[in-house]
Each structure stands twice: as C-alpha cells, then as structure tokens.
Automatic annotation (TrEMBL), chain A:
SUPFAM superfamilies: vWA-like (SSF53300)
Domain VWFA: 577-764
Protein name: VWFA domain-containing protein
Pfam families linked to this entry: VWA
Source organism per UniProt: Bradyrhizobium ivorense
Domain of life: Bacteria
InterPro entries with a match to the protein in the record: NorD/CobT, VWF_A, vWFA_dom_sf
UniProtKB/TrEMBL annotation, chain B:
Species, as recorded: Bradyrhizobium ivorense
TM annotation in the entry: none
Keyword Thylakoid: no
Entry's family note: Belongs to the CbbQ/NirQ/NorQ/GpvN family.
Protein name: Denitrification regulatory protein NirQ
CbbQ/NirQ/NorQ C-terminal domain ranges (all copies): 185-268
Domain ATPase dynein-related AAA: 38-172
Pfam families in the cross-refs: AAA_5, CbbQ_C
Length: 766, 270
C-alpha cells in the first residue's frame, strides 16, 4: 500500500501547512479543520483534499476577508454528493481570482450567487464555462464583474452557460476597453447587450432560415414579399410577425423556441402570413372599435384565413396545431379565453366547456358558406366582443399580445386612417396603434441596419448624410467570426463605402518599366479560362475516332499524311476577373531602408497590375480599405471593373493615404460581394497588405486573424481564388495563417513583383 | 440488318402509347406531317413531348428514330461515318441518314444540348430541298417522301449559349407544350402510375406548388413524369413522403434550403 502511504503523508503535510497558515485566526482555523474532516470522509474528495487545502490557502492569502473564506467553507461542507469535487475546487480558485481583481465584496457576492445557481449548472463543464467567463470579465473589466454577478441567476436562466460565456466575451469586445461602455453593457442598459443575450443561445434564427422561408412563401402561396428582420426590442411584450405591403417582418428570434422548434415556428409564421396575403383581401376600418374588438375581429380573421388555407393544404394543420397549447381550465381572463377560442376554431378535437368559446365556434361554423368573405370576421368578432364586455372581463390592451406566437400582430388588417390624430378615436385604440408605431421608430433610430434586404434604406441614408464626406456611406454589415466562442457575431461590422479622393497629380508610372513589361507579357500569355475541345491534333488525351478512321483510309489508299488523330482540351477565351484590395492602414506609412513607404509600393504594384491585366483584356478592379472600430470599416473604390486604367484612376491612386487600422475580414467579405456579382470563369481576389489585421477595439491579435482566415475560406468555398501579397520587409507570419502558405506571397520590393505574379498565375492554372 | 424493311421495323411502335391530348396538337401535327413540315416541340422537361411524338408516330404508322442530343455530339454522330473492317472501309449511316433514306420520323430530343455546328447539318433537310449531303461520302440523299424531322426544345434553359440559332429556329413549325391543367394531369398521373385519383390529385397539388419555385431556387418545378414516378413508388406500397422524397425532392435540387422548402410543401399538402 505504498501509494496510500505516500498520499496520506502528503495529506498530513498539506493539513499542517493549512493549520500553520490559519494560526491566529481561530474562527477560520477551527471551521476549516471541521470542514476538512468532513470532506476527508467523502470518497470523491479523499484524493483531492490536498488541492482543497491549496484552494482554501489561496482564498485566505488573497486577503479577501474572513467572510469569503467562511463562505467557501460552508459551500464545501454542503457540497452535494453527486456534484464533481473538481467544480468546487474550480469555484475556490475562480473566486480567489475574482477577488484579486475586483475586491472582496464582489468575491463574496460571487460565492453566494454561484451557490444559488449551482443546481442550474448541471451539464458537463457548465460550471467551468461560467467561471472562466467570470474570471475573464474580472480580469478585463473589474468594475463590471459585480454587475454580472448580481444578475447571475437571471442571466443564466435566460441564456444558459454557453450563452452567458458568449455574451460576456461579446461585451468585452464590443466595449473596446472603455469602462463606461462595459458598465452599460453588463448592466444590461445597452440594447446590444439585451439582444446578444437573447441571441446567445439560439443565434439569429431569422438569418439562418430566411432563404428557406422566402422559398416556402413562394412555393406555398406564390407570393414574393420581401422579408425584413425585426430586432428584438427589450420590451415586456414579445415580438410578433408584422405584415405590411409587400413586406413581412419576422423577429430575429422567437425566444423560447429553439432548434427544431425554431424552424417550426418560423414556418408556421410564414404559412400564416401567406394565408393573410392571399385571403385577407380587405382592410377593416378601425372606426370606433375598441382594442378588445380589434383583437377579436383579428382573431376570427386569423381563423378564417387558416381555415381557407387548410382547405387547399390540409397538412398545414400539423404545422400550426402544436403551437395551440391552450387548455380549457384556469382563470377566465379575456386573453385566456381568446387563446382557447383560437384553438377551438382550428382544432376540431379540442373540447372546451366554456359557453363563450362554444358560441364563437358555433358562429364561425355557421358562417361556413361565407368563409371566403372577410366581412364575417368583423361580424363574429363584434358579437363576441360584446359578450366579453357583458361578462365584465378585464382586457389589458397594453400587455395583450397575439397568441399563439406564430400569428402576426394583425395590424395590417386594419385601416387606421388618421386615427391617432382624430379627436374622437377611443384612446385604447390609439395606444395600441401608437405603441406599435413607436416600436418601429425606435428600432429604426437605434438599429444598425436590421434590414438587410432593403439596403440602403431611409435610415441608412439619413445617417449617411452626416458621415458621407468623411467616411462614406454605410452600405453593408457583415458578421465576424469569434474563434474563442466559436460563433459568428451577426452584423458585427459596418462597411462605409466611398470613391477614393483623387489627387491633383496622377501617379506617375514609367511606361517602359521592366516590371510592367514582364507582367503584361505574363498576364497576356497566361491561359486561364474555359477549356475547349480541339480535334485532329498531333497529340492529345483521347483518340479522335473520325480523324483516326480518315488517316487509316488515307494510309491504305497510299497517301502519306500527318498523324493528327487525337483530340484534346485546350484553353478557351479569356475569362478572368481580378479585384485588388489595398491595405490603407496607418502602418502602410512605414518606410523601408530606401525611404519608400509600403503604400508607395502598394499603389505602384496596383497600377502595374491593373495596366497589365487590362492589356490582357481581363477585368480588374482596385479597392482599398482601413478601419476604425467595427462600426467604421472604410472601403474605397479606386478603380471599378469597367473603368479604364486612366489618369483619373492614377490620380486616385496618388491620392491614397495611410490611416487607422486593418480589419481585414470585413474588407474581404465586402470585396467578395463585388466579385460574386461578376460573371467570370475565374475570380481572383488579391490583397496587398503590410501585415497582420488589427483594430482599436480588439485586444486579442489572434481574433481578427482567425476572422480573416474564415472570411478567406468562405470566399474560396464560393469559388474565388484568394491571394495576398505581403508588401515591405516584414515576415508576416499571420498572412500564411489567413490565406494559406501557398497563397501568401512576399513582395519586399517592386522588382520582385513579376516573379510573384507568375507564381500567382501558376497557382491559378492548377 | 441490311434489309431496309427489317431495319425500319425495329423503329416501329406497335402498341398505342397512352397520350392525353392537351388541346389540338394531334390535329396540328397531323397537318404538319401531311405537308412534311419540320416540327419543333417546345416545353418544360417531363411534360410529355416525347410521349406525344411516340403517339403520333404510332398514329401515323411511321417508324420513329429518336436521337438524344448531347454536347459532345458531332455531325458524324448524326449522319454517319466511315468505319474499318477487314475488307477496308465501310460506310455506316447515322440515325438521321437512316431516317432520311428509309422514310422515318427522326426525333432529335433536346436539340439545344448539341453543339451549334452540329445542328446546321439539318438545314438542307428542313427547307424545300429536303436533301442530306454526305460530304464525306460524296453523296446527296433526297429524303424519302415519308421522312419528317421533329426536334424538341426546352426553353427553360435561358442561357445565351444554349439557344437555337435563329436560322435553325425559323425552319420549324412549333407546338407549345406545358404541364396539363390540374384535372388532366391528375388523369395522366393516375393512369400512368396506376394509383387512385385522390393520391394523384395530391401529387399534382404538390407539383403545382413546386412549379411556383421556378427561378426561385429551382430551374424547373416537378414534372408530370416525376409525379408518375412518385405514383409508381406509392403503388408499390412506399409512403407518400418517402416516394416524394425519392422522386421529387432529391432529384430536383441539391440545395438544402430548397429541399427543405419542398418538404414543407409536401407536408403542407398532405
């Protein structure tokens, strides 16, 4: 039993060290010994007791006060038997770290809150995930960790451990090292924060499903509305689908519906919206109707269009029914009865003893001859509304929300006329209508392009007018890859696009430069394009039967002829599109030993490449970028694909300057969007840069590298060829990581450019 | 098969093919054949063009020589070529030449798939000359009086590369085909697949929804032929969703989103 002997010796020594440390602190000392003795008797701790000692010593030595140590001892003593001992020790270490960064009060709060949320964190590694997020937050934003800890239970209940961790790292990144922004984010005062928290778990369901939903709408209903993403507003009333002329707004996520259920509710919502588009042919005047009546008429109209849809497509019932979960019990409130009625009208098997629900059912069934007439919704809804009024049931227009969740807000059914201004309109109605309008407005004011399909929309244009002169027009938002969290951050970067400013004097390009001559030759002779079949060749991959027969005949006839009996695939017409993307960040102003800046080399290379490629009659565009945080990725158009390489373009090249940072991934995605639109057999994106991506709001240098790498991979998958020329003397280890070693070529001086261009063409030919 | 009559017999259609007329195409084609006018059958894939020409060949009592055109097809594949045997060279007629010599209906299926220079060989046959020059053989064949040329053409491929030359197009009378209307398509599917009209009706409903997706993820919606295939599987006891998956969803597209949309359509209709 040598092992046991050794471990018990260790145990003895460890215990003695702890006791020595705690000497003089009798309260803690005796409590520690008691807890220790209790833990020693538990098998899962027996081999770890020395580590536990270290954890307690750490807490004590961090000088966080007796309360923290005692609190940890209490947690240890009551540590549930089924929980891993490892988690307890991790909590000890994490609290020590948090205490060191944020102080003992926060450390104590952390212990208290952690012990509360413990039952929630039952999954493998959930405790460690949460602890790691808290430690990261304590380290990078000590003033904010308390805010997160105080709400820990709520946050975890909402987002889960993984979601919480993603939310924390997103917040650290979004606030870019500014404490005030961090406080707003972690105090949930920030709209982005609430949104990310809601998204944390499910991701952006709308973005994921949009294409499928649009196709489903076309397939089922043969209607082609545009889809618009509605951001989740931090209101108490959940978001519903919203219809407008030619437009369907869908919440970016339906909270509470995840995975397969998320797919189902979006499909149900789109099927329902389509039923409205096809069957809700008139708009009801609001007139003097009260909110309750509006809601009831809408409810009947919902049932009417669904019934009509089910006649044509009975399978839709199985899409909609699962969301009707109302049961014939509970307190009879107006809203409760209405969800029961909604179910009763669509679910023939549903039993409900309530007289009002039964009356609604009877009225609706009795109108079956006239189901195609929207007027019945108005009639039945009106009758049922009167009954509810007589039953004296409360109806709160402010908190009312259409149920089940797949149904839309039904505002599109109503003709509000000038209701909000009309003096005699009932106040309730106005509130309902105005509230909904208010939500729309706020969204537009605060929203960074939540509407991707309708870009550039009015909001963008309005905001653009302020920034146009300096930065360009916001034209697009792109996601960014967070390698640490393994997620895409939706709409994370905003591209501001503008034409490059021309300088008075065009860039001078020695017409007879050796580099230009050799690159022109190279590009002209390079054969990259479709392959064509050539027959009757001297050599080739396959026998050309016709030629072979003809040659044999000639030979037998005694003629001597050339043995052209093969066919082969040969290059066809040129069909290549190039996009040069120039890095215009501040570091491109660095000079080499000869006094040339990186930017000088870049623009000269761009001028030569553009001139040469144009001579070869391929299309080439030259764009540039730099960035100033994720909201301002500036993208300059220097030469369009169809612009000639003339003095104007050379003036723009001459007018380029170096400033700000390098958010490469966003620029790559935007450049890719230009290339995608080109019709060409090969599409080549060539980045001229001086090194690694960086930006002011990103502390982790690896983050943007990994994002750019992902962007490059995604573009390759879409059929583009991507290369990078590392300009200047540096080594640029990141370039290989981002683009792949074979595609990242070093161009220290302009005179090696021809060689590199040749390498590029060699790769293209493969 | 040196005997021309025997050679032709293999191209004869003996049993009446099932064909349900859409409009007056049978009458029109009959008149066109009477004057030996070249005919072009236009319409989406799987709507019954080939079945129609088989039916007409049977009705007119003419042999039918069908050539499925493909992009590697050369003029020699149509008109014929010299081959070698022990004696020396022998000429072998291509399918078009056979039809021209012996008086069959020659049906060039999906003509746009063939290279444009290939299709030019049919030009002398499609005007009042009605001749086929075999330049490799130094022969000029005057078409048999029963010969007729029919091509099919799917306008769904709207690409500049895959369109007929104007000079080819204008030589033909054209019959426009489309999927039959609902009741007719139900009749066709139910008869061809041997299934109950109710199931056929469901399949037709699914197809009409899928045709909405043309140009929105699909190049073509589900064809009548696909529905017949689905119906046949159902006839063998396969469930509706599996049959549709196998004969409609998977063949139509490889795009995961579009496949899901089609599945949504199927479950919405069922």
């Amino acid at each position: 039993m040598a092992v046991a002997h050794v471990s018990s010796l260790e145990n003895f020594r460890s215990s003695r060290r702890l006791a020595e440390l705690l000497r003089g602190h009798d309260d803690i000392g005796s409590a520690a010994q008691t807890t220790r003795a209790a833990l020693e008797r538990r098998p899962e701790f027996a081999s770890r007791i020395a580590i536990w000692d270290v954890a307690v010593r750490g807490l004590f030595e961090a000088n966080l006060g007796e309360a923290v140590v005692l609190s940890f001892l209490r947690l240890s003593e009551h540590w549930p038997a089924q929980r891993s001992a490892h988690d307890l020790l991790a909590i000890g270490r994490a609290v020590t770290d948090i205490g060191r960064s944020a102080g003992s009060r926060i450390a104590h709060a952390a212990l208290t809150e952690l012990s509360k949320v413990l039952p929630r964190l039952a999954g493998a590694n959930e405790v460690t995930t949460v602890l790691a997020a808290l430690c990261q937050l304590a380290d990078m934003g000590p003033e904010s960790v308390g805010l997160a800890i105080n709400r820990l239970e709520q946050l975890l209940g909402h987002a889960g451990a993984e979601g919480f961790s993603a939310w924390v790292s997103a917040g650290l990144r979004a606030s870019g090292g500014r404490a005030a922004q961090r406080r707003a984010y972690f105090g949930l005062d920030d709209a982005l924060s609430a949104r990310l928290l809601a998204l944390g778990r499910t991701g952006d369901d709308f973005a994921r499903l949009e294409k499928r939903l649009a196709a489903t709408m076309v397939a089922l209903w043969n209607r082609k509305p545009r889809f618009r993403k509605l951001a989740i507003a931090p209101t108490s009333v959940p978001r519903r689908t919203s219809l407008a002329v030619g437009l369907i707004g869908l919440p970016e996520t339906f909270p509470g519906f995840e995975g397969a259920r998320a797919d189902a509710i979006y499909l149900a919502a789109v099927a329902h919206a389509g039923a409205h588009l096809v069957h809700s042919t008139v708009r009801f005047p609001v007139g003097r109707l009260k909110a309750l009546q509006l809601a009831l008429v809408s409810l009947i109209e919902d049932a009417r269009v669904e019934t009509l849809a089910l006649r044509e497509m009975p399978g839709l019932r199985w899409l909609w029914l699962p969301f009707h979960t109302a049961v014939p019990s509970g307190q009879a409130t107006a809203a409760g009865l209405m969800t029961r009625l909604a179910r009763a009208l669509i679910d023939p098997d549903y039993q409900d003893g309530d007289a009002w629900v039964a009356k609604g059912r009877t009225l609706f069934a009795a109108a079956s001859e006239r189901w195609t007439d929207p007027a019945i919704s108005r009639e039945i809804g009106g009758l049922l509304g009167n009954d509810i009024g007589q039953m004296r049931l409360q109806f709160n227009a402010k908190s009312y929300v259409v149920e089940p969740a797949y149904r839309d807000d039904n505002l599109a059914l109503w003709d509000f006329g000038d209701a909000p201004d009309a003096p005699d309109a009932p106040t309730e109605t106005i509130e309902l209508a105005v509230d909904s309008v208010r939500i729309e407005r706020r969204e537009e004011a605060g929203g960074r392009s939540t509407d991707e399909t309708a870009r550039p929309d009015e909001t963008l244009r309005a905001r653009a007018s302020v920034t146009t002169l300096l930065d360009g027009i916001p034209v697009a938002t792109y996601p960014e890859w967070d390698y640490a969290a393994n997620t895409e951050r939706i709409d994370w970067t905003t591209i501001l696009e503008a034409d490059a400013v021309a300088s008075a004097k065009p860039l001078e390009l020695p017409a007879e430069s050796e580099a230009l001559r050799s690159i022109t030759r190279l590009t002209r002779d390079a054969s990259i394009g479709r392959r064509l079949r050539q027959k009757g060749q001297r050599e080739g991959d396959a026998l050309d039967i016709d030629a072979a027969v003809a040659r044999t005949i000639e030979r037998r006839a005694g003629h001597v002829s050339e043995p052209r009996v093969y066919q082969r695939d040969a290059p066809g017409p040129r069909d290549l599109a190039f996009l040069l993307l120039l890095d215009l960040s501040h570091s491109t102003a660095d000079r080499d030993r000869a006094g040339r800046t990186v930017l000088d080399v870049e623009r000269k290379a761009a001028a030569i490449m553009a001139a040469a490629v144009e001579t070869a009659r391929d299309a080439i565009a030259v764009h540039g970028f730099n960035s100033d945080g994720r909201e301002r990725v500036r993208y300059l158009r220097i030469k369009g694909f169809d612009e000639p390489m003339d003095a104007v373009v050379r003036s723009r090249l001459a007018g380029l300057g170096s400033s700000h940072s390098t958010r490469l991934g966003a620029a790559l995605r935007h450049a890719g969007s230009y290339l995608v639109q080109r019709r060409a057999f090969r599409k080549v994106l060539l980045v001229l840069t001086d090194g690694e991506p960086s930006d002011i709001d990103v502390p982790d240098p690896q983050y943007l590298t990994e994002d750019a790498r992902r962007a490059a991979q995604q573009l390759r998958r879409r059929g583009m060829d991507i290369f990078a020329f590392g300009i200047g003397g540096g080594h640029y280890p990141q370039l290989g990581r981002i683009f792949g070693e074979r595609y990242a070529l070093r161009v220290p001086r302009i005179d090696v450019l021809p060689q590199r261009v040749m390498q590029l063409y060699t790769e293209l030919k493969k | 098969m040196t005997n021309p009559a025997l050679l032709l017999d293999q191209y004869r259609i003996l049993d009446e093919p099932y064909y349900r007329p859409l409009r007056d195409e049978v009458e029109l084609f009959g008149a066109a054949y009477a004057s030996r006018m070249p005919v072009m059958l236009k319409g989406p894939t799987g709507c019954g063009k080939t079945r129609f020409i088989e039916y007409m060949a049977w009705r007119l009592g003419r042999p039918l020589i069908t050539v499925a055109c493909h992009e590697d097809m050369t003029a020699a594949d149509l008109v014929g070529r010299w081959l070698l045997d022990a004696e020396g060279t022998v000429w072998s007629d291509g399918p078009l030449t056979t039809a021209v010599r012996l008086g069959a209906i020659c049906y060039l299926d999906e003509i746009v798939e063939a290279r444009q220079d290939t299709t030019v060989v049919i030009h002398p046959l499609t005007d009042d000359r009605r001749v086929l020059p075999l330049e490799k053989r130094g022969e000029l064949i005057h078409a048999h009086s029963d010969f007729q040329l029919v091509i099919s053409y799917n306008p769904g491929y709207q690409s500049a590369i895959k369109d007929l030359k104007e000079s080819t197009k204008q030589r033909f009378a054209a019959l426009d085909f489309d999927y039959p209307d609902r009741s007719a398509e139900v009749e066709v599917v139910s008869r061809e697949a041997g299934i109950e009209p109710e199931i056929a009706d469901l399949l037709v409903k699914i197809a009409s929804h899928s045709r909405n997706l043309k140009g929105q993820g699909l190049d073509e919606g589900a064809s009548t032929r696909m529905l017949v295939n689905a119906g046949r599987l159902i006839g063998y006891g396969i469930s509706l969703d599996k049959a549709c998956e196998t004969t409609i969803v998977v063949p139509l597209t490889d795009d995961a989103d579009t496949r899901n949309t089609l599945r949504d359509v199927i479950s919405a209709c069922a």
